[in-house]
Design brief:
Distance between the termini of chain A: 48 Å
Strand order of the largest sheet of chain A: 2-1-3
Order of helices and strands of chain A: EEHEH
Strand content of chain A: 15-25%
Shape of chain B: globular
Number of helices of chain B: 8
Oligomer: heterodimer
Strand content of chain B: under 5%
Structural class of chain A: alpha+beta
CATH architecture of chain B: Up-down Bundle
CATH topology of chain B: Ferritin
Number of strands of chain B: 0
Helix content of chain A: 10-25%
CATH topology of chain A: Ubiquitin-like (UB roll)
CATH architecture of chain A: Roll
CATH superfamily of chain B: Ferritin, core subunit, four-helix bundle
CATH superfamily of chain A: Phenylacetic acid degradation B
CATH class of chain B: Mainly Alpha
Number of strands of chain A: 3
Helix content of chain B: 55-70%
Number of domains of chain A: 1
Largest interface: A-B, 13 and 12 residues
Order of helices and strands of chain B: HHHHHHHH
Structural class of chain B: mainly alpha
Number of helices of chain A: 2
CATH class of chain A: Alpha Beta
Chain lengths: 96, 252
């Protein structure tokens, strides 16, 4: 629960030097988007973790319901045939 | 047991480096006092990061000053074994940290000053100083942006934050003059007065955005750059110097 004088929460995504994608690394409080970027820089990239930052208001993230976990994800447990491990690969593709 | 104090020589280039290096060192100490006291965790970290940036700049400058001074001292000895009159930072840097508005306004003023200075020192004939400036100019740019946002936010914020920013401006205003005070020391970088037009333009622009009026010119010029300090530096130095004096030559 947040009180009325608390700043909004932001989710922080950072892309590292070698990385192609921004990875979620945590969250922080900030009054607006600009401040969120600055504080993300100070909190999450102080040890050379990144070269690009995204911030997203946490309230804008729509999440799956933990109560749906069984219905959503358990049915996949016995569908091993969905993994492409049954194909014989030519030797030339060894490193696929 | 006492550890003997050291004195640096009167070489103008060393004096120039100390005026700058001591500014970074002493302001770093003041900003670091916020560690654990920031208004929110994120800003606490931001301030600590900035203090450490300034400390890194101070280390490089004092190391360089020690080399030019040629008495075989190192950065630690210069930072921790000089007596009060040997520190050449403007008095502005040593003023107590005050409230959050005071800290941010001072940070903004100093970052703007340092940015103007570092960007000129990048072209210094002294290769070592030019290299230090090349790294520091990026840090100063961020410090200035971060502090400027707070000045606007607080100045243009609530009645309370506006009143605090006004009070901070009233207190700090007379101490800004010393940033540009001539000292007859030349050679390594621009004359201090040369920085004033840039500083005034940038400082005024942000204050206007914050809805704060510039006070009228003050005739007062503090004299920290000549080693004549306020009562506050004397209280800072024992805290800063205790370890090096108790354990001479101690390192991490």
């Amino acid at each position: 629960m947040t009180t009325s004088n608390e700043w909004p929460l932001w989710e922080v995504f950072v892309r590292n030097k070698a990385g192609l994608d921004h990875k979620h690394c945590g969250s922080l409080h900030a009054a607006d988007a600009k401040m969120a970027i600055q504080l993300a820089r100070d909190v999450y990239t102080r040890r050379q973790e990144g070269i690009s930052i995204w911030v997203v208001p946490s309230s804008q993230i729509v999440a799956s319901d933990p109560g749906d976990k069984g219905a959503y994800f358990d049915p996949m447990e016995d569908k091993v045939y969905r993994h492409p491990t049954f194909y014989e690969l030519p030797d030339a593709l060894n490193h696929m | 047991m006492t550890t003997a104090s050291i004195k640096v020589g009167n070489d103008p280039q060393v004096q120039y480096l100390l005026r700058l290096g001591d500014s970074c060192l002493i302001l770093s100490q003041r900003i670091a006092e916020w560690c654990g006291h920031g208004p929110i965790l994120e800003e606490d970290l931001a301030l600590s990061n900035m203090a450490l940036d300034l400390l890194g700049q101070a280390r490089a400058l004092l190391t360089h000053a020690a080399r030019l001074d040629g008495q075989g001292h190192d950065e630690d000895q210069l930072a921790f074994l000089r007596e009060e009159r040997q520190y050449l930072n403007p008095v502005l840097m040593e003023l107590p940290r005050g409230d959050f508005a005071f800290t941010q306004l001072r940070n903004f003023a100093v970052a703007t000053w340092l940015l103007a200075l570092w960007s000129r020192l990048e072209k210094s004939g002294d290769a070592e100083l030019a290299a230090i400036a090349g790294k520091a100019v990026k840090e100063a740019r961020y410090h200035q942006q971060h502090a400027a946002d707070w000045v606007v936010r607080l100045g243009d914020g609530t009645d309370e934050s506006n009143a605090r920013m006004k009070a901070a401006l009233r207190t700090l205003w007379p101490y800004f003059n010393e940033l540009f005070a001539a000292d007859g020391v030349a050679g390594l970088g621009p004359a201090w007065a040369e920085l004033k037009p840039d500083w005034t333009a940038q400082f005024g622009e942000v204050l206007a955005e914050a809805g704060l009026a510039l006070p009228k010119e003050s005739a007062y010029v503090s004299a920290g750059h000549k080693g004549v300090h306020s009562e506050h530096l004397g209280h800072m130095l024992p805290t800063m110097q205790y370890l090096q004096r108790a354990y001479p030559g101690g390192v991490w």
